[in-house]
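Hi, here's the filled form for the chain we discussed.

Project: internal
Contact: R.S.
Residues: 143
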Amino acid sequence: MPRRSLHRAVSSLTLVVLVALPLAACGDDATTDSRDFCDSGMEQLSEVEATGAYADEPEEFADAVTELHDGFESIEAPAAIATDWATLSQLFADLDDTLQSIDLSDSDAFSAALSDYSDRADTDEITTASDNISNYFTENCGD
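And the returned structure, exactly as it came back:
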């Protein structure tokens, strides 16, 4: 698969999550636990976007996805969005598993895995989780 198509597959994958998750900064009205989540959660979400920079380097991309998975797992979300956060965490766990199961030096396999995964990730469940997390950040982490 041409690099351009590969880059497009990676870009579409990161957009599945990012479209509904605008970045926001935590405000003064947040509790300490909420502020901690706002800071660490937003930092983790920014890493999702940064991972797309490795689109042309499958091994680096796979390593970045492993770090995303670990990062999502390490953050305890507030009860109001814990299930939604777990849904996104599982999304990256699944992608991590998929990438670990293929030969990353085979660009066709890498592209096919990302394309298949992107299709599976484009679900109402992911959209709802993303919307709920976005709304939480807007309501609880705004300036």
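Let me know if anything looks off before we file it.
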